[in-house]
Predict the 3D structure of the following.
Amino acid sequence: MTERLPWHKAQALIEKHTGPVITARPIKEGFNSEIAVVINDTTFVKGLRGDHPRVWTQERERRINPHIRHVSAPLRWTETTGDWDLNGFDAIDGRTASYKPSSPDLEPIVAMTAHWPPAPDGVELKRAEHRWSSYSDRSELFTGDWLSHTDWSPTNILIARDGRASMLDWAWPTSGARWIDPACWIIWLIASGHHPAQAQAWASKIPPFAAAPVHAVTAFAQAQAAMWEDIGVHAPRPGLADAAARWVKYRTT
């Protein structure tokens, strides 16, 4: 988890694009940025210090944004200096999604995934078969040419006032099978109170997952269980390792 820094350390750079700061609302959710703040209710700014070891994720998010802005927040400006690397996005007027079994947010999330694009050319992406190779000896089953977000924390999804869902924080996109993102979602649904059968039923509303090879999804579930067990106490929320293990048990017994 990246430690948050006071946004005003970069205020002069931000105001070059937003004008004077009238209101600033720091964002607590998310784990990838040192600065995360909504300025004047119109601009979401995320940034890292120029010497941060993961500052390169800022550039990758800039390069991916033109391909996903229809399901995310459009990037409006960037500011890079020796001290800071900042991205300024349209601020979405919405709330964090709920994954509870009774949540009305689940249908908009399913609808959002219908607009996922193929992995774009010219953007360096981790390939799924490499990303999870240390957790599976069958990771070749995860191969594909579709863009995957892979971090399905509900804090990465905003539900706008009109009910549409948007996926934020594309710092770690992956190229892989089209069913990978729904499979990642299942673990978060189970951790949020769904029975594994119920979670899979929601994922199966997404056609690529419904058509996915059974053995490939089971191998992926086992890889996710191994990964979350390895992450352990450093997971972004409690219960993910247990949820992944429950999904594997459901699929294999």
In short: The longest strand covers residues 43-49.
